[in-house]
């Protein structure tokens, strides 16, 4: 970690304060230190005021005849009653060191009497009253009533002590400067006591004071402690001259952060885009969030804690941006965490909860707390880190500002490839030292793809292991692997795709019973560009594409996946449905689809019926066959498999589908179009079911299942309907 302690000399200066410190020292020496005075150095918390004063004092001590320096830290004193005693304890050795030898013993006794007299606030109040400090008499009278021994000192005896000490201090061969730092760390009552203390002894000869504080904080503390209307006016009675610490140049703060970040990167090679993004962060966000040296220290220490452990899993620019935000706007930091977490849900499901786009938009505008052109610019800059911020909607009414405005879930893929803050696979690294349980890191995904190419049987074993690995969040690790692979699609080679399809063709159906579903169907089975089959586009050579497709449809055991590919292509080519897609957007060409169709139908007719009946989403498998134009093929297959009543009930049970007809969700196990397409129509099925329920020679469980199906059919609102759009 970077030490947050103030600098002690100019050699450590990173912000160009050395010249200012030298001038401050020169100005200090131009005053008559023999008369004693109080100087205030004003600056916000973390602005570098302590460092500036330390450099000035270091310069003062080096100069001929320069003062001796005492650094007094009142916030380290255990009790405010001990403040004066501690001050004189610090003062004593320095005073004795600069006095003639003959004066030392007598002066030591006087200082010790001061220390004894200051064992309570009553003595301090008496001293302050002698010096003319307001409100001190009230404190003294209050403490005298308590019987404190210090109250026994008469004003006369204190006055005599004061005069004797003044006489001794006039003999010092070098003046003394007492630096009182961090007044703004104290409680209001303690601030008031320190100021009273300084005022009480401010006119001692050859003793000067430098007070470092945040003016607004100190003024508010004085107002609270002394119950007065204007704390700044009171401070003017104590401080004779003040100096405001200049703001550090943004250029210097930015360069300091860059230098420290370079150390954290540890010489790592960055791609041009990554390096350019990091440089952009320095210029976009340092001016926004870095105001003081302490801001830099806090950001760097935060990066050391959060970036270093995961630096090979995150984007450096995004990480610096995030911790700049965290240093000054914790509400925005929390909003970003919730936003990117919700974005990961879009990667899973393709949508967010209704109203979330406007609600998150309103919350973002609240936490950035800007307006007009400044607000628009801030949102524009945020877009380089957070996709989906609809800046166009911001120019309309403020309550219409929307986020999560992605063209599609595919927009997040680029963020995944570059390990960005908005990546569904990487965002958690930005907020913790590792990804949460139930995730797979990049190295695992990369190694899996290499294994698919070189040893597909080994990759298959790994994939099956992930199918059986349950995530704490629900679902299986194999789903995460598929999602991560799709996100990395642009970086996957043609040979890796060929090996991957061999693995998926063998086992992807095995994942279906455990996977999360969308409207009763798992997304990864779909045969479009957004899912795993879309990786076919990574194979650009025609012969290699053809070979990969032939191998897949000849050997794959995952019929549910093959069926989804066939159905998706059927609709895309316009074979079924109202219209197809433009040819230029087809995933498979006409020739490629023709090859897949023939192989698919051949496989269906040659595969044992018992195996097909166990395929997930069996009804979709039948419709994929049916919609190829070979309507007799699946009807004949169904007729052959349902000659026995027991088999009829079994097949009917496998041909259920899911639908939703109301917000509450109404599920129908069998649909009219299913019966019309593959059986003897609705009426024919009803007659057969009635006959089975009345046949006592049939097993009771079969008759019970028949009755259940019959009851469902009887409850249908009508007995027609041939649309398969919801299938």
Automatic annotation (TrEMBL):
SUPFAM superfamilies referenced in this protein's UniProt entry, alphabetically = P-loop containing nucleoside triphosphate hydrolases (SSF52540)
One matching Pfam family: KAP_NTPase
Q: Which residues form the signal peptide?
A: none
Against Gene3D superfamilies, the record matches this protein to: P-loop containing nucleotide triphosphate hydrolases (3.40.50.300)
**Residue span, KAP NTPase domain:** 18-304
The molecule here is called KAP family P-loop domain protein
List the source organism: Roseovarius albus
């Amino acid at each position: 970690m970077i030490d947050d302690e103030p600098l002690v000399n100019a050699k450590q200066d990173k912000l160009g304060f050395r010249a200012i410190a030298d001038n401050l020292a020169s100005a200090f020496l131009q005053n008559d230190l023999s008369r004693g005075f109080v100087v205030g150095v004003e600056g916000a918390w973390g602005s570098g005021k302590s460092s500036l004063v330390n450099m000035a004092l270091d310069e003062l001590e080096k100069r001929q005849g320069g003062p001796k320096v005492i650094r007094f830290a009142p916030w380290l004193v255990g009790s405010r009653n001990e403040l004066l005693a501690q001050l004189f304890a610090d003062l004593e050795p320095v005073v004795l060191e600069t006095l003639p030898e003959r004066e030392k013993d007598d002066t030591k006794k006087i200082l010790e009497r001061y220390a004894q007299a200051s064992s309570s606030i009553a003595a301090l109040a008496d001293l302050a009253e002698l010096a003319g400090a307001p409100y001190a008499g009230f404190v003294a009278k209050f403490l005298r009533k308590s019987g404190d021994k210090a109250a026994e000192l008469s004003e006369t005896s204190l006055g005599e002590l004061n005069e004797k000490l003044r006489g001794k201090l006039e003999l010092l061969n070098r003046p003394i400067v007492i630096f009182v730092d961090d007044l703004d760390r104290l409680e209001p009552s303690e601030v008031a006591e320190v100021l009273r203390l300084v005022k009480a002894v401010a006119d001692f000869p050859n003793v000067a004071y430098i007070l470092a504080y945040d003016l607004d904080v100190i003024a508010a503390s004085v107002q609270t402690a002394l119950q007065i209307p204007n704390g700044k006016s009171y401070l003017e009675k104590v401080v004779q001259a003040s100096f405001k610490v200049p703001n550090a140049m943004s250029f210097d703060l930015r360069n300091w952060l860059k230098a420290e970040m370079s150390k954290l990167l540890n010489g790592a090679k960055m791609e041009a885009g990554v390096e350019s993004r990091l440089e952009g962060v320095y210029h976009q966000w340092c001016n926004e969030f870095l105001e003081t040296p302490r801001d830099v220290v806090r950001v760097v220490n935060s990066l050391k804690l959060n970036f270093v452990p995961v630096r090979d899993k995150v984007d450096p620019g995004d990480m610096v941006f995030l911790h700049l935000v965290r240093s000054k706007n914790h509400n925005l930091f929390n909003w970003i965490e919730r936003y990117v977490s919700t974005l990961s849900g879009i990667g899973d499901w393709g949508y967010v909860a209704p109203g979330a786009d406007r609600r998150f938009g309103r919350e973002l505008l609240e936490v950035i707390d800007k307006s007009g052109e400044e607000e628009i610019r801030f949102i524009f800059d945020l877009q380089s880190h957070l996709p989906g911020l609809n800046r166009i909607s911001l120019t309309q009414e403020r309550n219409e500002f929307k986020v999560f405005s992605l063209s599609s879930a595919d927009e997040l893929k680029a963020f995944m490839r570059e390990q960005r803050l908005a990546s569904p696979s990487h965002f958690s690294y930005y907020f913790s030292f590792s990804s949460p349980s139930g995730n797979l890191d990049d190295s695992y995904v990369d190694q899996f793809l290499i294994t698919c190419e070189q040893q597909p049987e080994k990759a298959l074993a790994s994939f099956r292991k992930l199918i059986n690995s349950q995530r704490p969040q629900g679902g299986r690790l194999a789903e995460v692997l598929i999602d991560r692979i799709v996100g990395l699609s642009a970086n996957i080679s043609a040979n890796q795709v060929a090996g991957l399809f061999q693995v998926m063709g063998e086992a992807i159906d095995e994942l279906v019973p455990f996977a999360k579903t969308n409207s009763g169907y798992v997304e990864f089975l779909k045969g479009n560009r957004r899912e795993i089959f879309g990786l076919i586009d990574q194979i650009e050579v025609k012969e290699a594409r053809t070979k990969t497709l032939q191998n897949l449809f000849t050997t794959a055991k995952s019929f549910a996946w093959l069926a989804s590919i066939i159905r998706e292509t059927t609709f895309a080519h316009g074979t079924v449905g109202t219209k197809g897609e433009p040819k230029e957007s087809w995933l498979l060409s006409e020739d490629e689809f023709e090859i897949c169709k023939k192989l698919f139908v051949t496989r269906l007719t040659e595969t044992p019926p018992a195996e097909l009946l166990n395929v997930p989403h069996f009804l979709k498998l039948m419709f994929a066959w049916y919609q190829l134009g070979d309507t007799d093929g699946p009807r004949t297959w169904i007729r052959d498999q349902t000659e026995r009543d027991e088999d009829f009930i079994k097949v009917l049970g496998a041909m259920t589908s899911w639908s939703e007809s109301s917000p509450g969700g109404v599920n129908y196990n069998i649909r009219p179009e299913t019966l019309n397409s593959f059986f003897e129509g609705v009426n024919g099925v009803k007659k057969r079911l009635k006959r089975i329920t009345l046949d006592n020679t049939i097993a009771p469980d079969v008759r019970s299942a028949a009755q259940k199906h019959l009851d469902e059919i009887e409850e249908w609102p009508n007995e027609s309907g041939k649309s398969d759009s919801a299938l």
